[in-house]
Task: structure prediction
Amino acid sequence: MEQTEGAGSAAEAYSAYKPLLFALAYRMLGSVMDAEDVVQEAFLSMSETKLEDIRHPKAFLCKIVTNRCIDRLRSASKQREVYVGPWLPEPLVEDESRSSEDSFLQRESLSTAYLLLLQQLSWVERAVFLLREVLQYEYDEIAEIVGKSSTNCRQIFRRAKLAISGIPEQERELARVNAQTKETNIAMQFVQALASGNVAQVLSIVQEGAVLYSDGGGKVKAAVRPIQGAERIAAFFFGIMEKQLPEDNSFAFAAVNGGTGVIGYTQGKPYFVLTFDVGEQQRISSLYLVVNPDKLTHLASL
Result:
Protein backbone atom coordinates (compact mmCIF):
# COMPACT_ATOMS: atom_id res chain seq x y z
CA MET A 1 0.00 0.00 0.00
CA GLU A 2 1.32 3.47 -0.89
CA GLN A 3 2.09 6.05 1.75
CA THR A 4 -0.92 8.29 2.42
CA GLU A 5 0.90 11.62 2.16
CA GLY A 6 1.48 11.84 5.90
CA ALA A 7 -2.19 11.42 6.78
CA GLY A 8 -2.56 7.96 8.21
CA SER A 9 -5.98 8.59 9.76
CA ALA A 10 -9.01 10.77 9.24
CA ALA A 11 -7.95 12.87 12.25
CA GLU A 12 -4.49 13.45 10.80
CA ALA A 13 -5.97 14.28 7.41
CA TYR A 14 -8.33 16.79 9.06
CA SER A 15 -5.42 18.56 10.73
CA ALA A 16 -3.28 18.50 7.58
CA TYR A 17 -5.78 19.45 4.90
CA LYS A 18 -8.65 21.40 6.44
CA PRO A 19 -7.14 24.87 5.73
CA LEU A 20 -6.38 23.91 2.13
CA LEU A 21 -9.86 22.52 1.54
CA PHE A 22 -11.55 25.56 3.09
CA ALA A 23 -9.44 27.84 0.87
CA LEU A 24 -10.65 25.94 -2.18
CA ALA A 25 -14.31 25.74 -1.12
CA TYR A 26 -14.59 29.39 -0.06
CA ARG A 27 -13.23 30.64 -3.37
CA MET A 28 -15.52 28.29 -5.27
CA LEU A 29 -18.66 29.27 -3.37
CA GLY A 30 -18.06 32.73 -1.93
CA SER A 31 -19.73 31.51 1.26
CA VAL A 32 -18.01 30.87 4.58
CA MET A 33 -20.80 28.71 5.98
CA ASP A 34 -21.25 26.64 2.82
CA ALA A 35 -17.48 26.17 2.54
CA GLU A 36 -17.30 24.90 6.10
CA ASP A 37 -20.22 22.54 5.45
CA VAL A 38 -18.59 21.17 2.30
CA VAL A 39 -15.31 20.53 4.11
CA GLN A 40 -17.12 18.70 6.90
CA GLU A 41 -18.95 16.60 4.32
CA ALA A 42 -15.65 15.68 2.68
CA PHE A 43 -14.16 14.44 5.93
CA LEU A 44 -17.36 12.56 6.75
CA SER A 45 -17.07 10.78 3.39
CA MET A 46 -13.46 9.99 4.18
CA SER A 47 -14.36 8.54 7.57
CA GLU A 48 -16.86 6.25 5.85
CA THR A 49 -14.23 4.97 3.40
CA LYS A 50 -11.59 2.38 4.22
CA LEU A 51 -8.25 4.15 4.57
CA GLU A 52 -6.48 1.42 2.60
CA ASP A 53 -8.69 2.35 -0.36
CA ILE A 54 -7.49 5.98 -0.25
CA ARG A 55 -4.08 6.13 -1.91
CA HIS A 56 -3.84 9.93 -2.00
CA PRO A 57 -5.89 11.57 0.76
CA LYS A 58 -5.35 15.16 -0.44
CA ALA A 59 -6.52 14.38 -3.98
CA PHE A 60 -9.39 12.32 -2.58
CA LEU A 61 -10.59 15.19 -0.39
CA CYS A 62 -10.06 17.87 -3.04
CA LYS A 63 -12.15 15.85 -5.49
CA ILE A 64 -15.00 15.53 -3.01
CA VAL A 65 -14.86 19.23 -2.12
CA THR A 66 -14.75 20.29 -5.78
CA ASN A 67 -17.70 18.09 -6.71
CA ARG A 68 -19.75 19.16 -3.69
CA CYS A 69 -19.06 22.80 -4.50
CA ILE A 70 -20.20 22.31 -8.10
CA ASP A 71 -23.36 20.59 -6.87
CA ARG A 72 -24.11 23.52 -4.58
CA LEU A 73 -23.44 26.04 -7.31
CA ARG A 74 -25.84 24.24 -9.62
CA SER A 75 -28.58 24.19 -7.01
CA ALA A 76 -27.97 27.86 -6.20
CA SER A 77 -27.95 29.06 -9.81
CA LYS A 78 -31.72 29.61 -9.88
CA GLN A 79 -31.55 31.55 -6.62
CA ARG A 80 -28.86 33.79 -8.09
CA GLU A 81 -31.14 34.56 -11.06
CA VAL A 82 -33.77 36.07 -8.75
CA TYR A 83 -31.37 37.53 -6.16
CA VAL A 84 -32.40 41.05 -5.19
CA GLY A 85 -29.62 43.57 -5.88
CA PRO A 86 -25.89 42.91 -6.23
CA TRP A 87 -24.57 39.58 -4.95
CA LEU A 88 -21.45 39.80 -2.80
CA PRO A 89 -19.50 36.97 -1.14
CA GLU A 90 -19.83 36.37 2.57
CA PRO A 91 -17.18 38.39 4.41
CA LEU A 92 -14.25 36.29 5.59
CA VAL A 93 -13.04 37.89 8.81
CA GLU A 94 -9.63 36.81 10.02
CA ASP A 95 -9.49 35.74 13.64
CA GLU A 96 -6.59 34.50 15.71
CA SER A 97 -7.43 30.82 15.35
CA ARG A 98 -7.74 31.05 11.59
CA SER A 99 -4.84 33.39 10.85
CA SER A 100 -2.30 31.14 12.54
CA GLU A 101 -3.06 28.06 10.47
CA ASP A 102 -4.68 29.01 7.18
CA SER A 103 -1.57 29.87 5.17
CA PHE A 104 -3.39 28.80 2.01
CA LEU A 105 -5.81 31.68 2.51
CA GLN A 106 -2.92 34.11 2.06
CA ARG A 107 -1.45 32.58 -1.08
CA GLU A 108 -4.01 34.05 -3.43
CA SER A 109 -6.33 37.00 -3.47
CA LEU A 110 -9.23 37.11 -1.07
CA SER A 111 -10.42 40.57 -2.03
CA THR A 112 -14.08 40.99 -2.86
CA ALA A 113 -13.19 42.24 -6.34
CA TYR A 114 -11.14 39.13 -7.05
CA LEU A 115 -13.80 36.78 -5.68
CA LEU A 116 -16.40 38.46 -7.88
CA LEU A 117 -14.12 37.94 -10.84
CA LEU A 118 -13.88 34.24 -10.00
CA GLN A 119 -17.67 34.08 -9.92
CA GLN A 120 -17.72 35.06 -13.59
CA LEU A 121 -15.90 31.86 -14.53
CA SER A 122 -17.84 28.67 -15.20
CA TRP A 123 -17.82 26.13 -12.41
CA VAL A 124 -15.26 23.91 -14.16
CA GLU A 125 -13.06 26.89 -15.07
CA ARG A 126 -13.14 28.06 -11.47
CA ALA A 127 -12.21 24.61 -10.16
CA VAL A 128 -9.36 24.10 -12.62
CA PHE A 129 -8.02 27.61 -12.06
CA LEU A 130 -8.03 27.31 -8.28
CA LEU A 131 -6.54 23.82 -8.23
CA ARG A 132 -3.72 24.97 -10.48
CA GLU A 133 -3.15 28.58 -9.40
CA VAL A 134 -3.86 28.35 -5.67
CA LEU A 135 -3.13 24.73 -4.79
CA GLN A 136 -0.35 24.20 -7.35
CA TYR A 137 -1.71 20.89 -8.65
CA GLU A 138 -0.27 19.26 -11.78
CA TYR A 139 -2.60 18.95 -14.75
CA ASP A 140 -2.75 15.15 -14.46
CA GLU A 141 -3.94 15.51 -10.87
CA ILE A 142 -6.49 18.17 -11.81
CA ALA A 143 -7.77 15.96 -14.62
CA GLU A 144 -8.47 13.18 -12.15
CA ILE A 145 -10.31 15.51 -9.80
CA VAL A 146 -12.56 17.24 -12.36
CA GLY A 147 -12.99 14.25 -14.68
CA LYS A 148 -11.43 15.78 -17.80
CA SER A 149 -8.28 15.11 -19.79
CA SER A 150 -4.98 16.72 -18.83
CA THR A 151 -4.88 18.53 -22.19
CA ASN A 152 -8.41 19.84 -21.69
CA CYS A 153 -7.55 21.06 -18.19
CA ARG A 154 -4.55 22.92 -19.56
CA GLN A 155 -6.77 24.69 -22.09
CA ILE A 156 -9.40 25.47 -19.46
CA PHE A 157 -6.76 26.96 -17.20
CA ARG A 158 -5.46 29.20 -19.99
CA ARG A 159 -8.97 30.53 -20.66
CA ALA A 160 -9.58 31.13 -16.98
CA LYS A 161 -6.19 32.79 -16.54
CA LEU A 162 -6.96 35.11 -19.43
CA ALA A 163 -10.29 36.07 -17.87
CA ILE A 164 -8.73 36.63 -14.45
CA SER A 165 -6.00 38.78 -15.97
CA GLY A 166 -8.70 41.32 -16.77
CA ILE A 167 -8.27 42.80 -13.31
CA PRO A 168 -5.53 45.46 -13.31
CA GLU A 169 -2.19 44.22 -12.03
CA GLN A 170 -2.09 46.99 -9.42
CA GLU A 171 -5.35 45.75 -7.91
CA ARG A 172 -4.24 42.11 -8.11
CA GLU A 173 -1.05 42.89 -6.24
CA LEU A 174 -2.95 44.86 -3.63
CA ALA A 175 -5.36 41.94 -3.23
CA ARG A 176 -2.55 39.46 -2.55
CA VAL A 177 -1.27 41.33 0.49
CA ASN A 178 -2.93 41.76 3.85
CA ALA A 179 -4.15 45.22 4.74
CA GLN A 180 -1.31 47.72 4.97
CA THR A 181 -1.08 50.75 7.21
CA LYS A 182 -2.17 53.17 4.47
CA GLU A 183 -5.28 51.17 3.68
CA THR A 184 -6.20 50.97 7.35
CA ASN A 185 -5.74 54.73 7.71
CA ILE A 186 -7.98 55.37 4.71
CA ALA A 187 -10.70 53.16 6.17
CA MET A 188 -10.44 54.96 9.50
CA GLN A 189 -10.56 58.37 7.83
CA PHE A 190 -13.65 57.34 5.88
CA VAL A 191 -15.53 56.17 8.98
CA GLN A 192 -14.45 59.22 10.98
CA ALA A 193 -15.62 61.52 8.18
CA LEU A 194 -19.02 59.81 8.16
CA ALA A 195 -19.32 59.94 11.95
CA SER A 196 -18.47 63.66 12.02
CA GLY A 197 -20.69 64.50 9.06
CA ASN A 198 -17.75 65.84 7.09
CA VAL A 199 -18.94 65.55 3.48
CA ALA A 200 -15.87 67.29 2.07
CA GLN A 201 -13.56 64.78 3.71
CA VAL A 202 -15.57 61.84 2.36
CA LEU A 203 -15.33 63.28 -1.14
CA SER A 204 -11.58 63.72 -0.74
CA ILE A 205 -11.17 60.06 0.24
CA VAL A 206 -13.44 58.51 -2.41
CA GLN A 207 -12.54 58.64 -6.10
CA GLU A 208 -14.94 60.60 -8.27
CA GLY A 209 -15.86 57.52 -10.31
CA ALA A 210 -15.99 55.09 -7.36
CA VAL A 211 -18.71 52.43 -7.19
CA LEU A 212 -20.61 51.14 -4.16
CA TYR A 213 -22.12 47.64 -4.20
CA SER A 214 -24.57 46.85 -1.39
CA ASP A 215 -25.89 43.34 -0.77
CA GLY A 216 -29.12 43.12 1.18
CA GLY A 217 -30.42 40.06 -0.63
CA GLY A 218 -33.96 41.37 -0.40
CA LYS A 219 -33.85 40.75 3.36
CA VAL A 220 -33.08 44.30 4.45
CA LYS A 221 -33.09 47.69 2.76
CA ALA A 222 -30.14 48.18 0.38
CA ALA A 223 -29.46 49.71 -3.01
CA VAL A 224 -30.65 47.24 -5.65
CA ARG A 225 -28.21 48.69 -8.19
CA PRO A 226 -24.57 49.74 -7.82
CA ILE A 227 -24.19 53.40 -6.83
CA GLN A 228 -21.61 55.27 -8.88
CA GLY A 229 -19.92 58.56 -8.07
CA ALA A 230 -18.41 59.93 -4.88
CA GLU A 231 -21.25 62.40 -4.23
CA ARG A 232 -23.97 59.77 -4.60
CA ILE A 233 -22.03 57.36 -2.39
CA ALA A 234 -21.64 60.04 0.27
CA ALA A 235 -25.36 60.84 0.09
CA PHE A 236 -26.19 57.14 0.47
CA PHE A 237 -24.11 56.71 3.61
CA PHE A 238 -25.20 59.97 5.22
CA GLY A 239 -28.82 59.05 4.46
CA ILE A 240 -28.37 55.71 6.23
CA MET A 241 -26.77 57.36 9.24
CA GLU A 242 -29.57 59.88 9.50
CA LYS A 243 -32.54 57.54 9.00
CA GLN A 244 -31.57 53.89 9.47
CA LEU A 245 -28.59 53.66 11.83
CA PRO A 246 -29.56 51.75 14.98
CA GLU A 247 -29.23 53.72 18.22
CA ASP A 248 -27.22 51.02 19.97
CA ASN A 249 -24.39 50.74 17.48
CA SER A 250 -20.63 50.38 17.45
CA PHE A 251 -17.91 49.84 14.87
CA ALA A 252 -14.77 47.74 14.74
CA PHE A 253 -11.97 47.48 12.22
CA ALA A 254 -10.92 43.98 11.20
CA ALA A 255 -8.95 42.07 8.59
CA VAL A 256 -11.65 41.13 6.07
CA ASN A 257 -10.98 39.27 2.81
CA GLY A 258 -7.29 40.06 2.95
CA GLY A 259 -7.75 43.79 3.53
CA THR A 260 -9.16 46.26 6.03
CA GLY A 261 -12.87 46.12 6.74
CA VAL A 262 -15.38 47.74 9.06
CA ILE A 263 -17.88 45.67 11.02
CA GLY A 264 -20.95 47.41 12.40
CA TYR A 265 -22.64 46.02 15.51
CA THR A 266 -26.00 46.67 17.09
CA GLN A 267 -26.81 45.16 20.48
CA GLY A 268 -23.59 43.21 20.14
CA LYS A 269 -24.60 41.54 16.86
CA PRO A 270 -23.06 42.31 13.44
CA TYR A 271 -25.40 44.10 11.06
CA PHE A 272 -23.03 45.13 8.26
CA VAL A 273 -19.54 44.58 6.91
CA LEU A 274 -17.91 47.19 4.69
CA THR A 275 -14.76 46.57 2.66
CA PHE A 276 -12.85 48.73 0.21
CA ASP A 277 -10.65 48.69 -2.85
CA VAL A 278 -8.04 51.43 -2.81
CA GLY A 279 -6.95 52.67 -6.23
CA GLU A 280 -4.90 55.53 -7.56
CA GLN A 281 -3.63 58.29 -5.26
CA GLN A 282 -4.61 56.15 -2.25
CA ARG A 283 -8.30 56.91 -2.67
CA ILE A 284 -11.20 54.48 -2.40
CA SER A 285 -12.23 53.12 -5.82
CA SER A 286 -14.84 50.51 -4.79
CA LEU A 287 -16.89 49.85 -1.67
CA TYR A 288 -18.65 46.60 -0.81
CA LEU A 289 -21.39 46.72 1.82
CA VAL A 290 -22.86 43.42 3.02
CA VAL A 291 -26.04 43.84 5.07
CA ASN A 292 -27.80 40.60 4.15
CA PRO A 293 -28.27 39.05 7.62
CA ASP A 294 -27.88 35.52 6.21
CA LYS A 295 -24.30 36.40 5.25
CA LEU A 296 -23.42 37.76 8.67
CA THR A 297 -24.62 35.02 11.00
CA HIS A 298 -21.22 33.28 10.96
CA LEU A 299 -19.65 36.42 12.44
CA ALA A 300 -21.69 36.30 15.64
CA SER A 301 -19.18 33.95 17.28
CA LEU A 302 -16.11 36.07 16.50
User: Anything to note?
Assistant: Residues 168-179 have pLDDT under 50 and may be disordered. Residues 1-82 form a domain with the Rna Polymerase Sigma Factor; Chain: A fold (CATH 1.10.1740). The CA atoms of residues 7 and 13 lie 5 Å apart. The two ends are 43 Å apart (CA to CA).
